[in-house]
Specification:
Elements: H1 13-19, H2 22-35, H3 44-52, H4 58-67, H5 77-89, H6 92-103, E1 111-112, H7 113-124, H8 130-134, E2 140-141, H9 143-152, H10 158-164, H11 181-188, H12 193-208, H13 217-224, H14 233-240, H15 250-262, H16 265-276, E3 283-285, H17 286-303, H18 319-330, E4 337-339, H19 340-348, H20 354-367, H21 375-389, E5 399-404, H22 405-415, E6 420-422, E7 425-427, E8 502-504, H23 505-508, E9 554-555, E10 575-579, H24 580-590, E11 597-602, E12 610-613, E13 617-624, H25 650-655, E14 663-671, H26 677-688, E15 695-700, E16 707-709, E17 726-732, H27 740-748, E18 766-767, H28 774-784, H29 787-794, H30 813-825, E19 832-833, H31 836-845, H32 857-871, H33 891-905, H34 909-914, E20 916-924, E21 930-937, E22 940-943, E23 949-957, E24 965-972, H35 977-988, E25 995-1001, E26 1004-1007, E27 1022-1027, H36 1039-1043, E28 1050-1051, H37 1053-1058, H38 1060-1070, E29 1081-1082, E30 1125-1135, E31 1146-1158, H39 1165-1176, E32 1207-1211, E33 1231-1233, E34 1246-1251, H40 1253-1258, E35 1269-1270, H41 1272-1282, E36 1285-1286, H42 1287-1294, E37 1298-1299, E38 1306-1308, ...
Parallel strand pairs: 9-14, 13-17, 18-19, 22-41, 23-27, 24-35, 28-29, 30-34, 36-44
Antiparallel strand pairs: 1-2, 3-4, 5-10, 5-11, 6-7, 8-12, 11-12, 13-14, 15-16, 15-17, 20-21, 20-40, 23-24, 25-26, 25-27, 30-31, 32-33, 32-34, 37-40, 38-39, 41-49, 42-43, 45-46, 45-49, 46-47, 47-48
């Protein structure tokens, strides 16, 4: 090395270079550059992976890295190459020096005892006794002493044994040639490796455009039709799809392209025959011939110029007549059909099929990505495509590309046939056609070509006023192209040129294809001179067509740039239009810096006729600068429990408010004037990965303060008034769900009342999100849209009933603030309001709702209703009420008593509208005592049945190798795999003892679940169930079997390829594993009964097959041994172009789905091969019977199945990459299991199925790996898992009796102790406004979880009467009571059918007697329970929905306005919606309004009373103003 500090200084780098061949040195340097760091060093991890491979133990690799001179900083290239030369080509002395460097100190002076012991222990796990001899005299030894010791003890360590005793199995080069996929495919097609490489890139692009993820018929048809007639699209697809699996894989595409483009004429015509042979019987009947002729005539008609059609001999030819003539002339056996040979004879003397061949060539080159072999072929292909497109008119949605005329002319000269002098005459290879008219014909609308000036010819579209120079003699005018894609791919906009800026259909109808440049002209002088050959043009350069852009931001759209407006751009002089397919091909072949796509739109000024939008609208997209988020509160505010911490202090609330966000130009984008706002939203969400609900678009006027929200998504860009270079702000919602612009507006308007005064429908006003306050906004909107209550507040009646002395209230502040907010919401003057005052007031009295955490909307709703009730409670002095036990009294009496007690303390508009009554009964389990209570409620909290079952999907693989079947099973969460086996056995009919569960992740086995393991849902893995053979009793051996002379059945090669082996092995498996060794052996082809394969193994050379012999006993198992089965993994060898040592040239890679191989004591190696073939034969495409004797374009050179099996079994470790028998230093990828009748050696339970490269590349069908059939149980199980439930189900669960557990003991008044009991709830009294809370959040197993169960509930006519508690036949209707409103009257209980007038006055409780009740009027008002005959129907008035996860998510409200329209309240956004657009699946809180009730009777009479107009305390108001100041 020459470096003093290098451990390899004894071995110069120059010497290493001399010992390496030039190719080895270059390859090693290239490999090092690929993996080295910027500092030119290789890390130890890269050294282990790239140089040695994964099979070498990490300790050994690190030791070798140390010996090569590697440090913590890395390993240099020179040290690496020197070390590799010593390792592979060094002498014994040099290797000893290398060993000394591994254990020596950094100065390469001595080996220290403790250090060496540590290194050996780390690398090998044990210390040899030979090391004690090394340090007998001293703890430090020099090189000389170490050298003598190593020679005396070469087996002291594993490293010394490898370097000094074992033959070196690795070298710097590997001359074995494993064919790559490209080489294999090139060998059986007419394509080059470079062609295949480019085709593969194009294939993945085509496949990505498919909705199904496969290159299926729909994808294929969308690409080729037109120009391929629709009638033959499917048959053309099947001509490519050889294996009839309804999609084209890459091998099929490459072989099909080879057959129809690059093959000889006969093979190309055979491909055409396959297209027309619809029924695949090898013959064309008369019907197929007629269809063929119709398609060929249509193709020829599309290829012919319009002016020459009438002179074409095939013009207006009758297909039926032609078909009969073909049959009459070529049907030799007179069977009414023609064979392939007869078809080929017909094509020799008839050129009708040539146009189809040319079209196929165009499709393969322009659409599928094949590069032409010659430039003349390229020109002809593009010429014919343009000629056909020129016959079509503009169509809305087409995309055309602009190409600079300078580049177009140079390209045209390059691909045109060259004119040469032949015997003094001009020749371009096509006779006398030298004027170029046949190359690409002109476009002058039938006028003479002498009119050169564009403004003199009405066929030329003038795009701008300013002109420079003259137009070329012939102009290009192409019409047609593919349909444009959606907005994310194409950008279009309005035209704004002072003259005509769009190419319209009227301008293009009848226009034909062009000459990209003038015809070759010859001077009269100098004819004898040979013109210079045209030079291949460089990349497409369109810079002369666009205005230079000084923008430093990225453009989201691919419009390429703005076309110049300072000069007149003329088609044919400045630019040419080509369809998308031509542009894509040219830009791929030549490269292109700027693409200029333009889209055809419907003109509004020309009766909707199509026009090409040359000047789309470019806008500047602004965003807000990222601002630091508010600090997380130190206290925890529970989402569900409501047990919150302390709120943030006022100071922190104000000081941590964000500053006003600044805007900056983030992107530019170009849109068509006919794009809708919805399309722009979808485009931005896709391109920039926004969530639709989290962005808003604002059109910014000339003044920054002039902003318009683009919320009507049906409007177009033109209708919204978006102009060229307009600024559009993308407002992204903050993490706390606030909108930056709203916060900025609130900072400017410190009162925080309104943002903008815009008229709107009354009640259709949104609420600003003030920081995760969507939970409050949704609840407030639901209450606000309860019209009876809103009328009460709008009328200011709450001011007459404020109760400021209620110790349970909020001094009337909640009612005041809510009343102010409701008046603003229903004023109809603003689209959005900031509820700052209500938010602050709620936080003042309920600190748990402070901060910026997400809270429970139902919890806020409960607090709000309670707060409003207490602030409006008409009872100013609440009397003491004693709760009495039922003591066996009638429910009616106890219920009435409880309700009267409730009304003595609680009377308000909230009680009138929202309060009902529940019956609760608890029964003691010991004495049977029944205790009944009646409690008020203001909402029903209904439980949702939490899923106690898990849905499992199991893929079952059977022994017969049939297509796997997926089964769906539902089990309890605590079940074990034993129960799963039982359920699966019932579905499949497989005994439980023959089912083996395997968790598979990708190509490897992750785990083998045991019967006593608890079932679980897999993350990233798939659960498979493999069928195992039945266990059979051991039978005594026959004499022949003992002697080994029993005859064995055989299966020939033809049986294997034609699938007969599968049937025989299936019979064998059905007979049990003991018969595995007595049938199915491959025909003997050698003396030792080992099949002879026609190809070499597919991996690098190994140490051979370690079959047990007396000289080579079976190695001990190094991997886990399974009982009754082995695991086989599919493996292929990936050839590396650069590598360091030979063992790394071909690296193994796993793929496919593992196979479980049944094996018992008498299982032979051949049994394993045969079972593997049974399982994989469906993945390998054999020669179809109909083509067994006929040649095929993809099979002529393929003999990948010309031997017994297309794979080899190797014994490997669990990772499937290294050998299970050989030590690591042999670098063996797995010892081969010979395909013979010898018993299988159970040295490992993992086998690698190494596929022969040719068979893998050409026959293995990757798409079938994951193919399986769905059993009916899958859909049934999924349906049950996600099946919605009804609201009735929730009510049934609510009213179902439940057993109280040990932690919920009930104190029995009779037993005088805590006892086990049962509890049951029933509804006794229903309120006019029924609030239903669906308990989506529940505390299970020590944690909060959310149920996403869908609940179906009625919108109208909801009748909960069936869930009312039953009444006794005789009621207390004749009871004489005293009215609470001081009217002494005997009243009867009457049904709540007609509500009389109600005159409720403020009552002082000190004037009320101790024994009072309700009069008839008061009873009806206070929700008296109806009789059984009364219908109780409710209509939904509003609902709050929660989407997302627990602890986050978002709340939205849907409510019905008094104008009978539904609105969606999404914070500040309020939009009208239909019933179908509402999100029922996420419903959380439901507001139902009772039918047939005149709510005007609930409005109190305030005549003669004065409102309470007292303002809120100055101190309170001052704190509020501080909080409202956000800046």
């Amino acid at each position: 090395m020459g470096g003093k500090e290098s451990k390899l200084q004894y071995f110069p780098f120059e010497e290493a270079c001399k010992r390496m061949r030039d190719a080895e040195l270059k390859r090693s340097k290239d490999a090092f550059k690929r993996v080295a760091t910027l500092g030119g060093q290789m890390s130890d991890i890269v050294f282990c992976r790239e140089v040695l491979g994964d099979g070498v133990p990490a300790g050994i690799a690190n030791l070798l890295y140390r010996g090569f001179g590697g440090t913590s900083k890395g390993l240099s290239m020179k040290d690496l190459l020197c070390g590799l030369v010593i390792l592979t080509k060094g002498s014994a002395e040099e290797k000893i020096k290398l060993l000394f460097g591994m254990y020596a100190d950094d100065s390469y002076s001595y080996v220290q005892k403790d250090e060496m012991d540590k290194l050996v222990l780390d690398s090998e796990g044990q210390i040899s006794s030979a090391l004690s001899d090394l340090f007998l005299e001293n703890d430090q030894v020099t090189f000389d002493y170490f050298r003598l010791w190593v020679k005396a003890h070469p087996d002291a360590t594993e490293m010394t044994k490898w370097l000094l005793m074992e033959p070196m199995t690795v070298s710097l080069s590997d001359d074995t040639d494993t064919p790559t996929f490209y080489q294999t495919l090139a060998g059986v097609t007419h394509l080059e490796e470079t062609d295949i490489s480019e085709l593969e890139k194009r294939y993945w692009v085509l496949k990505s455009q498919s909705k199904s993820g496969k290159f299926d018929l729909d994808t294929f048809k969308a690409m080729v039709c037109p120009p391929v007639p629709d009638a033959i699209c499917e048959s053309l697809f099947h001509a490519f799809d050889e294996n009839r699996d309804n999609h084209i894989d890459f091998k099929e595409m490459a072989c099909g392209i080879s057959a129809c483009c690059r093959g000889p004429g006969t093979e190309r015509q055979k491909f055409c025959f396959k297209v027309f042979d619809v029924n695949h019987n090898g013959k064309l009947c008369e019907k197929e011939i007629v269809q063929m002729v119709e398609a060929l005539l249509r193709i020829r008609e599309g290829n012919q110029p319009t002016d020459t059609m009438e002179y074409d001999p095939f013009y207006k030819m009758d297909p039926d007549t032609v078909a009969k003539e073909i049959l009459a002339s070529h049907d030799g056996d007179k069977d009414g059909c023609i064979t392939q040979e007869e078809y080929l004879v017909w094509t020799v003397n008839n050129a009708l099929a040539d146009n189809f061949l040319d079209l196929l060539s165009q499709i393969c080159h322009l659409i599928m990505g094949l590069k032409p072999k010659a430039k003349e072929e390229e020109g002809e292909i593009i010429k014919e495509w343009l000629q056909r497109e020129s016959k079509r008119s503009f169509e809305v949605g087409q995309v055309w590309y602009l190409i600079s005329m300078t580049w177009w002319n140079s390209w045209f000269d390059y691909v045109s046939p060259q004119i040469q002098l032949v015997n003094g005459r001009l020749d371009n290879g096509e006779g006398d056609r030298v004027n170029g008219t046949e190359a690409l014909h002109r476009i002058t609308k039938g006028k003479h070509a002498s009119k050169a000036l564009p403004w003199d010819d009405d066929s030329v579209i003038i795009v701008n006023m300013i002109t420079k120079g003259k137009n070329s003699e012939f102009n290009t005018q192409i019409n047609g192209g593919f349909k444009s894609s959606t907005i994310p791919q194409r950008s279009q906009s309005a035209c704004s040129s002072p003259i005509k800026t769009c190419l319209s259909a009227s301008d293009s109808n009848g226009l034909t294809s062009i000459s990209p440049g003038p015809s070759p002209k010859l001077r009269k002088k100098g004819l004898q001179q040979t013109p210079p050959l045209p030079v291949k043009p460089g990349p497409i350069d369109n810079t002369n067509l666009i205005t230079p852009s000084n923008s430093k931001v990225m453009s989201l759209t691919n419009e390429g740039g703005r076309l110049r407006r300072d000069v007149m751009l003329v088609r044919g002089k400045d630019f040419e239009l080509v369809p998308e397919v031509i542009w894509r091909a040219l830009s791929t072949w030549y490269g292109g810096n700027i693409a200029l796509p333009r889209t055809v739109i419907a003109s509004k000024n020309n009766n909707g006729s199509p026009e090409l939008e040359l000047y789309p609208i470019t806008v500047k997209l602004l965003r807000h600068q990222v601002i630091p988020q508010r600090p997380t509160p130190t206290s925890f505010s529970g989402v569900m429990s409501g047990i919150g911490g302390m709120a943030l202090s006022m100071t922190s609330y104000v000081s941590n408010a964000p500053p006003i966000p600044r805007r900056y130009v983030a992107f530019t984008a170009t849109f068509s004037k006919q794009h809708t706002i919805q399309q722009i939203y979808e485009f931005l969400c896709t391109k920039v990965r926004f969530i639709r609900e989290d962005i808003r678009l604002w059109k910014i006027g000339s003044k920054d303060d002039s902003m318009t929200l683009l919320e009507d998504e049906s409007m177009t860009v033109e209708e919204c008034g978006v102009e060229e270079n307009q600024s559009v702000l993308i407002e992204v919602r903050n993490k706390d769900l606030t909108w930056p612009e709203e916060m900025s507006q609130l900072a400017k308007n410190k009162t925080g009342a309104r943002k903008e005064q815009v008229p709107t429908h009354k009640g259709a006003t949104g609420l600003n999100n003030l920081g995760n306050t969507c939970f409050m906004n949704a609840a407030v909107q639901c209450v606000s849209n309860t019209w009876p209550l809103t009328q009460y507040f709008i009328g200011g009646l709450h001011l007459f009933e404020l109760n400021r002395s209620n110790p349970l209230g909020m001094k009337g502040h909640i009612a005041q603030r809510y009343g102010e907010l409701v008046k603003d919401l229903w004023s109809g003057t603003s689209k959005t309001i900031a509820p700052l005052k209500l938010r602050w007031t709620i936080g003042k009295y309920a600190p748990r709702f402070n901060g910026f955490q997400q809270h429970d909307s139902q919890e806020l709703l409960s607090f709000l209703l309670d707060g409003l009730h207490e602030d409006l409670n008409r009872v100013h002095v609440k009397p003491y009420v004693e709760l009495k036990d039922s003591d066996g009294r009638q429910d009616e009496v106890v219920a009435e008593e409880a309700w009267e007690n409730h009304l003595r303390r609680n009377q308000s508009i909230i009680v009138d509208l929202f309060h009902g009554q529940l019956k609760s009964q608890v029964r003691c389990k010991e004495c049977g005592h029944l205790s009944v209570r009646f409690d008020p409620f203001n909402y029903l909290s209904l439980p949702l049945p939490m899923d106690s079952c898990i849905h499992l999907e199991v893929i079952v693989t059977r022994l017969d190798g049939s297509v796997p079947i997926k089964y769906g099973i539902r089990l309890n969460m605590d079940e074990k795999y034993k129960a799963l086996k039982k359920e699966l056995s019932n579905l499949t009919g497989i005994p439980t003892g023959q089912i083996l569960f395997v968790e598979i992740m990708g190509p490897i086995v992750k785990a083998l679940p045991q019967d006593n393991h608890k079932v679980k849902t897999l993350i990233g893995g798939v659960l498979y169930a493999y069928e195992l053979p039945p266990h059979e009793e051991i039978k005594p051996m026959t004499i022949e079997e003992e002697k080994g002379t029993a005859p064995k059945n055989s299966v020939g090669l033809n049986d294997i390829q034609r699938g007969l082996a599968t049937k025989k092995i299936q019979q064998k498996l059905e007979n049990g594993p003991s018969s595995m060794s007595n049938s199915l052996t491959v025909e003997d082809s050698s003396a030792n009964n080992t099949p002879t394969h026609s190809r070499q193994p597919s991996d690098v050379p190994t140490m051979g097959s370690l079959q047990p012999t007396p000289e080579n006993p079976a190695p001990k198992a190094t991997a886990e041994i399974f009982s009754g089965f082995a695991i086989g993994v599919h493996r292929k060898m990936n050839l590396m172009d650069v590598y360091f040592v030979s063992s790394q040239k071909a690296r193994p890679g796993l793929f496919g789905t593992p196979i479980i191989l049944p094996c018992v004591e008498d299982t032979t190696n051949q049994d394993l091969y045969q079972f593997v073939w049974t399982q994989v034969s469906r993945l390998v495409s054999p020669l179809p019977p109909s083509e067994a004797k006929s040649a095929n374009h993809a099979q002529d050179c393929d003999d990948s199945l010309g031997y017994e099996y297309p794979f080899t079994l190797k014994v490997v470790k669990k990772d499937g990459l290294s050998c299970a028998w050989c030590p690591w230093y042999r670098f063996c990828r797995g010892c081969k299991v010979e395909c013979n009748a010898e018993d299988f050696n159970f040295g490992s339970s993992f086998l690698a199925i190494d596929w022969e490269p040719t068979a893998l590349h050409l026959r293995y069908q990757t798409a079938l790996e994951r193919l399986y059939e769905d059993h009916d149980s899958v859909e049934e199980s999924r349906k049950k898992q996600t099946e919605p439930i009804n609201l009735d189900t929730c009510l049934q669960a609510f009213t179902t009796e439940e057993e109280l557990g040990e932690d919920e003991l009930y104190y029995c008044s009779k037993c005088k102790k805590h006892c086990l009991a049962s509890k049951k709830l029933d509804i006794w009294r229903l309120p006019p406004i029924l609030i239903v809370n669906l308990k989506r959040f529940q505390f299970l197993n020590g944690r909060w979880v959310k149920s996403h169960k869908i609940v179906n509930f009625p919108i109208e006519d909801f009748d909960p009467s069936s869930y009312l508690a039953p009444r006794a036949p005789s009621s207390a209707s004749e009871q004489s009571v005293t009215c609470m409103c001081n009217s002494s009257a005997e009243v009867d209980r009457v049904p709540n059918r007609d509500i009389p007038d109600h005159d409720s006055a403020q009552m002082e409780m000190e004037e009320v007697n101790s024994e009072v009740s309700l009069c008839k009027k008061c009873q009806l008002t206070q929700n008296i329970p109806p009789t059984a005959e009364d219908p109780i129907n409710y209509n939904l008035s509003s609902m709050s929905c929660h989407t997302g996860i627990l602890g986050g998510g978002h709340y939205v409200c849907y409510a019905k306005n008094p104008n009978q329209k539904w609105y969606c309240y999404n914070d500040s956004s309020c939009k009208e919606c239909t019933i179908d657009q509402m999100d029922y699946n996420s419903a959380y809180i439901l507001f139902y309004e009772r039918q047939s009730i005149d709510f005007s009777h609930f409005i109190p009479d305030v005549d003669g009373r004065e409102p309470d107009l007292q303002e809120i305390d100055d101190e309170f108001e001052s704190d509020l103003k501080k909080a409202c100041v956000l800046q």
